[in-house]
Amino acid sequence: TEAELLAFEWKYLIQLPQGYRAFLKTIGNGGAGPYYGLEELESGIFETLDDKDPKYTIDPSVEFPHTEMWNMDKYDHEKEETDEEKEMIYFDRKWMSGVLRISNFGCGVSVNIVVKGKEYGNIWIDDRGNDGGIYPDPYFDRTERTDFLTWYELWLDRSLSKATEKENIKRDA
User: Fold this and answer.
1) Which of 25, 36, 150, 152 has the most CB atoms at less than 10 Å from its CB?
2) Which helix (H) or strand (E) holds 99?
């Protein structure tokens, strides 16, 4: 409801991107969607969608720090770190501030919508679990930035196309 969305926005000091907000209000909170489906809004603050431990959350009210792909090899080190220190830096939650996690891709990869910062409204991937870094969503063969409704519609179009193709194969057999 509008009241629930406003309460969430106030609690986390954010404003949900218009398309995502409209989807939540009109279609639903979580459910069918790309990869392992859409997460419920309340799950969006967890560091990992595989283990929703309240001790481990990201802060959506702090600006998202990226405007281009980021990975540890591009990170400027001021000193020599041990492997353990490098891992702590790499997985620091500050790198994913300003987002809500919206979908679990699997294998430690999450799909996120930026709710604070220059990339506001765009979909970004967190693939640090596979050493892939953090980058704008390239899926569905897109090279330009993707907002929530475009991302979701691309998934719907692909899903419908595959379903139609399967139906045609069955009919022709």
Assistant:
1) 152
2) strand 99-106
Residue 163, C-beta contacts closer than 8 angstroms, at least 6 positions apart:
none
Q: What is the pTM of this model?
A: 0.87
For the CA atoms of the chain, what is the radius of gyration?
Answer: 18
Tell me which residue has tokens 């300003």. 98
Give Cα separations from 22 to 25, 27, 91 (angstroms). Answer: 5, 8, 32
* Phi, then psi, of 31 in degrees rounded to 5: 115, -150
Q: From 143, 116, 135, select the one nearest 59 (Cα to Cα).
A: 116
Q: Which residues contact 45 (CB under 8 A, 6 or more apart)?
A: 12, 57, 58, 60, 100, 101
Strand order through the sheet with 99-106: 99-106, 109-114, 123-126, 134-136
